Each structure stands twice: as C-alpha cells, then as structure tokens.
Amino acid sequence: MVSFVRAPRVLAPPAEVPLDASQRATVHMAAALLLDYPVEGTLAGRLDAVEAELDRLPAEVAVVLEEFISVARRRGERAMAEHYVEVFDRRRRCCLYLTYYTVGDTRHRGAALLAFKQALAAAGYEMAADELPDYLPVVLELSARSGDEVADALLSSHREGIEVLRSALADAASPYAGLVEAVSMTLPRIDEATAERVRALVAAGPPTETVGVTSTLPFPSVPVRHPNLSGPPTTPAPSPLTGPSAPRAARRA
C-alpha cells in the first residue's frame, strides 16, 4: 500500500484593501499583540484592545481579526498557548522569525539577524527584551509605532516568508492564519516574480545547512517571546492600541 503526503498548498494572494496610515498601523499593532505568545493573564486584555478598534478598520480586515478573537475566546488562554507552541515551535514552515525563510538555520543566519538589528537602529530603536530582531511581532510593532520606511522595507523584502507562513498556518487549520492574512492585506500586491518565489519556498521549505558548522548567532537561540523596542516613538504612535496590554516601545536614547 502506497502512502501519499499532501503537498503544501500555495494560497492565492489576499485581497488588496485600501488603508490609511492609521488603519495600517492599527492592523500591524493588532497582529503584533496577537501573534506574540499568549503569556498567562495577557490574552483577554489583548483581545479586548484589538476588538475595541475593529470599527475603525475596513470590513475585509475587521472580519478576519474578529474571527480570530472569537476563536481565541472560545478556546481559552491555556488551549491557545498549547496551540501556539504546537504550530510555531514544532512546525518548520510555521516560523515567526523572518530570516529563517531566507537563510534557515545556516551559517548565514547571524549576518541576516545583524542586518535586522542594524535596521532597527537606523530607525532609532533597539531591542529592550531578550528577543531576536527578525521576530515578526517586533517588525510589526516597529511599523505601527514608528511609521518608518525601514519597517516597510523589512516586511516587503521578506514577503515570501510571510506568505509561506500564511500558507503553512492555513494547512494546519490554525486561527493564527487569519492574523497573517490581515497583515498580508496591508502589503503591496504580489507580483508574478514574488509569487513564483513563494511557490518554490512553499514546496522546498526554509533552507537547511549542507555542511556542519558551529552556530554564529550573536543572539540567544531560545528567545523570550516579548516584542519590546526601547525608546519613545518620534511622533505619537498612529495606532491607538496602547496601554498595559500592548508591547512597550520607545525611541533609543
């Protein structure tokens, strides 16, 4: 008897939704909050904070976020935390660290992470928590709080990884797929060249090292999941999602 393994799906690009700067910031901060690990006692506050802003968003995006909120409340904090570990820590294609999709766990990862750290510094921010700078919630928080073109460049240059993550989460029937879809709706339309790279990456998965090397990562390999950027934003954050349930961010001195 022959067993067949279903090939990963390549999802169609999401709808392109017109958003102003404030709405885009709100979506990015919402995703930053909800894609971070649901530390005990934090999920309800995060869900409430996002739900309070849904009326400000276009219906196409609001309904996706609302669906995640409904599922998360129904499952509860403990079940969501267990599911989070199952998909993001145990599935190779469900990784929240963007450089993993471009260089994988290879000798090039250290340089790729350093480039992210330098990009954050160029925007006037630095990490205030023990976290890697390519963590998607960190980049989304930077986008929401600063409106800086550096964040746009980081998201655009790693669009293939974001789409592979969306596809993998959909394959896993994870409610987190909706959050990545909402982020994807805020990004420019995918051209055919990018679509082809997405198809290839979905089929092959992230790169793997072909020779034995010692890790060159200049950052902890098992980070604490708390996106925090130190220093106040240059201008008031365009996203209203602030307060105790939101990640703390401030401009570097």
From TrEMBL:
EC numbers on record: 1.7.99.4
Keyword Oxidoreductase: yes
MF term (GO), any: metallochaperone activity
Record flagged with keyword tRNA-binding: no
Region: Disordered, residue numbers: 225-253
Pfam families per record: Nitrate_red_del
Keyword annotations of the record: Oxidoreductase
TM helices/strands, residue ranges: none
SUPFAM superfamilies attached to this UniProt entry: TorD-like
NCBIfam families: narJ
Protein name: Nitrate reductase-like protein narX
Annotated source species: Actinomyces viscosus
Gene name as annotated: narX_1
